[in-house]
Amino acid sequence: MGELAAIEALAARLGRPPPGELWLGDDAAVVEAPAGPLLMAADTVVAGVHFDLRWSAPADVGWKAMAVNISDLAAMGARPHRALVSVAGPAGTDIPGLYDGLLEAAAEYGCPIVGGDLTSAPALVLTVAVTGSMPPGRPPVTRAGAAPGDVVWLTGPVGSSAAGLAALVRGEADSPLAGCHRRPRARLEEGTAARTAGATAMIDLSDGTAIDLWRLGLASGVEVELDRMPVAQGASPEEAMGGGEDYELAFTAPSAASEGVQDAFAAAGCRPPVAVGRCTAGEPGRVRLGGADVGVRGWEHRF
Fold first, then answer.
1. For residue range 3-24, what is the model confidence (pLDDT) as tens digits?
2. Whole-angstrom Cα Rg for the chain
3. Band (240; pLDDT cuts 50, 70, 90)
4. Residue 36: CB partners within 8 Å, gap ≥ 6?
5. Which of 47-56, 101-110, 189-198, 205-214 has the lowest mean pLDDT?
6. CATH code of the domain in which 197 resides
7. Which residues lie closer than 8 Å to 293 by C-beta, 6 or more apart?
8. Integer Cα distance of 162 and 151 in angstroms
9. b/e string for 23-49 if b means 16 or more Cβ within 10 A?
10. Measured in Å, how far apart are the chain's first and last C-alpha atoms?
11. Residue 269: what pLDDT?
């Protein structure tokens, strides 16, 4: 399919913009600015780094590219607004298949795709940029607000994505864990619930629980003392601590707010979060589990 035909087909799939907005088909999209703070995030998924087409269908790749960006908004307690998608790939790239997943995730999370770019490239690369918003007067939850004494919470067990990838490599494509790797979930409602309950700091667990808690602790100037680590069924403790791509949220909140945290999650219809430890005034960034230093374990790109 040529570029012009591909763009024409995509324009038909994206649908008509609401009054006052201009989506795909011009030099830039025009959208209504949301009320309150405007948040922006961008992420790229690359063949051979973030996915392997031997184990993930094009629709899975599209879903993942959208969901991981929306997860970044969830980690600040924000809601998605609009998205731009750029696809670079070799001849034969299944553009409609990619957009099956992109549009499915866009509908799931209420984030319409309003434009982007198509270009040829030697390897398949998807870049998604999203905007998000928060209610006026509500600041976003950053990584830098935790204080000694705050409780550390996780929105769910971790390790399922790494265990799912291991299952796919073993040829176990029908494993329930395989779907956790192919189609991660952005914890959007959980992020809003955490912010509503008074979360002081928050981060999504994209690169590994250990390395992401290190980032939160370093930004906040606290040490993270873990009492437990909820390991997903079928995953190992190592996959839970360093595997990455779970996209659960880790957040902190004052001890006095613990009942409010549980109530906020219940009111949002979310799974109960799990209290896993506390922040202390120890070495900023250090993460300890049961008194033992876990180190900075997880995924890190090398350049």
1. 778 888 888 888 889 999 999 8
2. 20
3. very high
4. 133, 134, 135, 136, 137, 138
5. 47-56
6. 3.90.650.10
7. 286, 287
8. 26
9. bbeeeebebeebebbebebebbbebee
10. 34
11. 98
| Longest pairwise C-alpha distance within the chain | 60
Judge whether 182 lies within some domain: yes
Residue 38 has phi, psi (to 5 degrees) of -100, 125
Residue 225 pLDDT: 98
Q: Does residue 106 sit in the same domain as residue 182?
A: no
Confidence band for 300, pLDDT divided at 50, 70 and 90 = confident
Tens of pLDDT, residue by residue over 190-205, are: 999 999 999 999 999 9
Q: How far apart are CA 134 and CA 22, in angstroms?
A: 23
Domain residue limits at 39: 3-133
Same domain, residue pair 155 and 122: no
Token pair listed for 276: 């896993």
CATH number at residue 85: 3.30.1330.10
Residue 302 maps to a domain: no
Number of domains in the chain: 2
SS3 162: helix
